[in-house]
Fold these 2 entries.
Entry 1:
Amino acid sequence: MTHISTPVRQNTNSIISRVSANDIVIGPTNGVETFTHAKSVFRYISPAFFNDPTMDKPSKATENEPVTVYKIKRDTTFAEMFGSMGYLNDLAFTQGQIIEFCRSHSDKLRPDGEATLFLFETEGKCFIADIRVRMHDNSFMPEVYMDYADNRNRWNTYSRPLLVIPAQRT
């Protein structure tokens, strides 16, 4: 697993491009909320969150966090897409911040079942929250999946995942 202090820097312009004209603000969080307890926000929560005991740990409370949404421009890996923005620890959200984004800004998630990706850390390790919005019972509801930041799988431009990155930390 990738530790959050891992520096990985690429040429940002060749990998991602900004989607949102203006920054979006994630409201403050209390640091208590985790994915395993966010059933009112997510229709489906990956078993990976329940199988790893480190995933259900509270984090720090956070203030308002301006974020920017990007899309990938070429086939890439997690390390390349997030690494193109700077140090991973500078880009990591808390679980509560991602939950708050999905609760308050669900209109900014990909509405077509494709991924909106967030980097988060728990106990000094980086993970990816893969949020997908799908139709359930005549309404669109987000689902959350977890992946490891050091996963070497390639994301292709066909699926065009969105990346949500802290604006003030890049």
Entry 2:
Amino acid sequence: MDVTNLNMGDVITINTAKGEVTDEAGKVLTTFDIKPNTVPDEFQAGGRIPLIIGRNLTELSREALNLGSTDIFALPENPTPKADQGYSQAQKMVGRACGVEGILPGAACEPIMTTVGSQDTTGPMTADEIKELACLKFKSPLVMQSFCHTAAYPKPADVKMHANLPTFIADREGVALRPGDGVIHSWLNRLLVPELSVPVAILIPVSQLESVFPLDQVWLHLVVPLVLCHSICLNLCLFGLRGN
């Protein structure tokens, strides 16, 4: 939005449907486009996460009822690949998880996650989110819960977590390690297949199999039951995602 004609103290009206900003007299001061095009749906749903959850639940429900796809949701306007489009290795890795050859910078994608690792400092929060979503079973083939951060010097709250969280994970067909069994990354390195990419929510990779995405912590917990990751790949060649 060009704000050249906007001044301190102006009373303005922002029309999101028309993409216009007008003054009290109705004069158009500037125009704008809402990007990405899914923002109106996100606003109506109460946020991006509720929208993704609702969209996926809708698709699963319609599939169970033998109904076709719905057109009530706005689909992301992704860049169109050129003829003989080339992709970096990272773009191919993410593309494989999305069922396409590669993902271009600026594209919105939802890769399928076949393996989810949860560690103990965030495990209780993960459990709370799963209960809020009424999740009775993990969709991912492998969900593993570790206790590598709190095993050595557990606080009273950690002792309680060590007793309760493994059963919670196992009841939903996940795998819970025991305190002292080892570090989450070491276990994932043993269990993962080299042909798959591992999105991790930290700033440094700890395995040759991992691709680093700066995912929001709460967002990661919501990914676990849905086993879907929605990310805007701004610069996949260097994984230099910028902004919030």
